[in-house]
Design goal:
The chain is mainly α and about 425 residues long. About 75% of the residues lie in helices and about 0% in strands.
């Protein structure tokens, strides 16, 4: 009876603990773009060197996501989170002592695995299992919004710290911060498995999923989300710093202390995070009532239009903030809908692993967005081609979600 009452509440200890961990995880992860110029200038590296490090981080995050999902399902959510936090802290601390591109890029593998162990795959699964059917979509949206809250504070905090300390010291501070997330672990109490779900072997469920056309379409569609988010997180601060028109001395931005395009770039990431808080919660609410696949198609279409309009217009402080607000409202709105769609079709038992595999596609996209951003910048001296690639694959994702069959697999009359 107690467990039932707990599931009927939206804000449970598990939800609160998950939000704290995700917030700290994303505050650190969202700040890496702020380090692009300081790291490149200190070592005299081309932009592509540190971009490749962030790209490798994203790829390791994607590889680690289903691995940590399986660890959580086999040995418990808390153990998976602890291992992830230790990887995250170790990667950040060791990166602070690295002085060659190869070493920085290798250590970002540790950071990527750390993000996976303390990120969406593990946290969304445990929150999804703890929530009632009525609250699940909204609960997933709230957790995702907590990641957005981390993004609001992450880049500006990094910018402030970089004004006081070398970037290496900031990495050490961030390593300590992710370990502090472990204080939220007592709130993460593994919920009982839904009694209506059949306890099938993981291998059988995975084999069924990868043969299902809808699962493949979801996998393919999530690629563009990762591409766009990875590119913007890693390169948008530098893009704004270099290409945005100057901030007028008498403007309202100047009056609140934003006097340089570098500060505007950090603010833009924060604005994206701020708008995303509302966007993800709204997406979670809408996913409770409306078709998740059509909502996803609409989000990807809107991203395509917003990105195309921004790159075709002059880059001014106003256009930067308008773009950040519009893209922010669509930023992680795909996450509660995509994870909820996976749970809706294949159930909650192996949601962490199944969503983790879909998320691998997202991180492949992130790898390409971050890496191409640096490589094509070094080749052409601008980001224009990278933007237009993002526009094209965004349109592809809008289309690819339309044929998805949202009916639960068990109700389709299929056999294992």
């Amino acid at each position: 009876m107690t467990n039932t009452l707990s599931r009927d509440r939206l804000f449970t200890p598990i939800l609160i603990g998950g939000c704290i961990i995700i917030l700290i995880n994303f505050a650190i992860r969202a700040s890496f773009g702020v380090f692009q110029i300081p790291v490149a200038e200190e070592f005299g590296w081309p932009r592509s060197y540190f971009s490749l490090a962030i790209a490798i981080q994203n790829l390791a995050w994607g590889i680690g996501q289903p691995v940590f999902g399986a660890i959580a399902e086999r040995w418990g959510d808390k153990r998976a989170i602890i291992i992830g936090a230790l990887f995250y802290a170790a990667g950040l601390a060791l990166t602070a002592w690295a002085s060659t591109p190869g070493m920085v890029q290798l250590l970002e593998v540790l950071v990527g695995f750390g993000i996976a162990g303390t990120g969406f795959g593990v946290i969304l699964a445990v929150v999804g299992r703890s929530a009632s059917d009525d609250n699940r979509s909204l609960a997933l949206g709230v957790v995702t919004a907590a990641g957005s809250a981390g993004q609001i504070i992450g880049a500006p905090i990094a910018e402030l710290l970089l004004a006081q300390f070398p970037w290496q010291t900031v990495f050490i501070i961030f390593a300590g911060a992710i370990l502090c997330a472990l204080f939220a672990l007592p709130l993460i109490r593994a919920p009982e498995r839904a009694s209506t779900e059949v306890d099938e072997p993981l291998g059988r469920v995975l084999a069924r999923a990868v043969k299902d056309p809808s699962y493949i379409l979801i996998f393919l569609g999530f690629f563009s989300c990762g591409y766009q988010l990875g590119f913007i997180t890693a390169h948008f601060p530098a893009f704004v710093t270099e290409l945005c028109a100057p901030i007028s001395a008498g403007s309202w931005l100047s009056s609140i202390g934003i006097t340089s395009t570098s500060a505007l770039g950090a603010l833009a990431i924060a604005v994206i995070g701020l708008m995303n808080v509302g966007g993800t919660i709204l997406a979670g609410m809408l996913g409770k009532t409306y078709s998740k696949k059509y909502l996803l198609a609409g989000i990807y279409l809107a991203r395509t239009v917003v990105s195309a309009a921004f790159i075709m217009a002059p880059v001014t402080p106003g256009s930067v903030l308008l773009f950040s607000a519009a893209m922010g409202s669509l930023w992680l709105a795909t996450v509660p809908l995509t994870s909820g769609l996976v749970a809706q079709i294949f159930g909650l038992r192996y949601m962490g692993t199944l969503y983790g595999l879909v998320f691998f596609s997202h991180q492949l996209g992130s790898f390409m967005g971050v890496w191409l951003g640096g490589a094509l910048y070094d080749m052409y001296g601008n980001y224009t081609l990278v933007w237009w690639i993002g526009v094209g694959i965004g349109a592809f994702s809008a289309l690819v979600h339309l044929p998805v069959n949202e009916r639960p697999y068990a109700m389709r009359g299929a056999t294992a």
